[in-house]
Write a structure and sequence with these properties.
The protein is mainly alpha-helical. It has nine helices and no strands. It has two domains: 1-48, Arc Repressor Mutant, subunit A, CATH 1.10.10; 50-177, Tetracycline Repressor, domain 2. The longest helix has 26 residues, at 50-75.
Length: 191
């Protein structure tokens, strides 16, 4: 892809991510093209359907959530990084709710590839848990997939998005993952 075409595609995805986060995925595509500084034809060349644009925005946001695990571990103690990452993941889940109907329809019809979201999220959790186990701050006997399941349970039970209850439940999950006898690091409020 030519540099200018890649730049246009990246800009379209960034604008779509912001638009879908602010509203939902029914935002007019003409507005996304205009805000990206391109014509509607350029949008459709890169994303022939609304579903393909939604999928690209979702994938870009998922990439950021997964990458944030390593970024947080570079700056924070593993137990603090885990809790900060949980908040980042909660934001992702809340802002992507508006895209889910379009994504599910695309997945069900076969027009969109079924994502590897759960595997990637579980991989990010595994990275943090391994660092915490090595540091002695997080339990070494926890299956990362179990943590993913617990977090999904929190998000399903607090479907309206991040709230005080969501934060309290995530605090309980994080507490359950703390190594026995570990007093915890001085928390840096990433919220």
């Amino acid at each position: 892809m030519r540099a200018d075409a890649q730049r246009n595609r990246d800009t379209l995805v960034a604008v779509a991510r912001a638009a879908f986060t602010a509203a939902d995925d029914t935002v007019p595509l003409e507005g996304i093209a205009r805000d990206a500084g391109v014509g509607i034809g350029t949008l459709y060349r890169h994303f022939p359907t609304r579903e393909s644009l939604v999928e690209a925005a979702y994938a870009a946001e998922l990439d950021d959530v997964v990458a944030s695990a390593g970024d947080l571990l570079d700056r924070l103690a593993p137990d603090v990084a885990l809790r900060a990452w949980m908040d980042r993941y909660a934001e992702f889940v809340a802002t992507k709710r508006g895209m889910l109907d379009t994504l599910r329809a695309g997945w069900a019809s076969g027009r969109l590839a079924t994502p590897t979201t759960r595997e990637r999220i579980t991989g990010a959790i595994a990275t943090i848990l391994a660092a915490g186990a090595q540091a002695g701050s997080l339990r070494a006997d926890v299956d990362p997939d179990d943590v993913t399941a617990m977090m999904l349970g929190v998000f399903l039970s607090t479907a309206s998005g991040p709230s005080d209850q969501t934060r309290r439940l995530l605090d309980l999950v994080a507490d359950a993952l703390t190594a026995p006898g570990h007093a915890g690091s001085v928390a840096i409020d990433e919220r």
